[in-house]
């Protein structure tokens, strides 16, 4: 009888222990890691993307050029602008920019988020250039921030935030903010940058 009671108690304890583990979805939440200094190692890009397009803010190794979200790698694909000096692309026609995703640790890449620059209504025939700034996960949604150069200088501009809850099949325009690099990127001088996605002031009107 004692042996049977002990066995029954052990089974209950094991069952409780199994139920107490967090679900895979909870374990995966908010797993975003900024990755620096690895942009030159990215290979096997789609044919319409130049290797020199993989970069970061001010094309500096201090700033993240790739992000790890839930085990997938996201790479920022840029076009030259005032805030993104990409000398390797001088004289080349940029065919695509946005965010790439790799689900096999960089062996292959697919287009995850595409940027289409809007027309500049104040300058006929010109486009307002946007570049991706970051990718992050929050509340089971993946967010992509893109930034233009319509600011007061020193890298400032308008930041538009997009969100997807279906792995990039559809996107929703989320919010518009005034982008200040010193607020958005933390610890830049220490070389251990983390993005602070809730540090910026909201704007009423952004051009996108």
- Low-pLDDT stretches: 1-30
Approximate strand percentage: 25-35%
By DSSP (H or I, 4+ residues per run), the number of helices equals 3
- The helix fraction, in percent, is 10-25%
What is the terminal-to-terminal distance?
74 Å
Which outline best applies? globular
From the alpha carbons, calculate the radius of gyration and give it in angstroms. Answer: 22 Å
Helix and strand pattern: HHEEEEEEEEEHEEE
The overall average pLDDT, rounded, is 81
Largest sheet: 5 strands, antiparallel
What is the number of independent domains?
Answer: 1
Structural class: alpha+beta
Major β-sheet strand ordering: 1-2-3-4-5
Number of strands: 12
What does this structure look like?
The chain has helices at residues 2-19, 24-28, 181-184, and strands at residues 32-35, 66-69, 72-77, 98-102, 110-114, 131-138, 141-147, 157-164, 172-179, 185-186, 194-195, 201-202. It is of the alpha+beta class and 208 residues long. It has one domain. A hairpin with a 7-residue loop joins β4 and β5 (110-114). The longest helix is centred in the first third of the chain and has 18 residues, at 2-19. It is globular and about 45 Å long. The protein starts with a helix and ends in a 6-residue tail after the last strand.
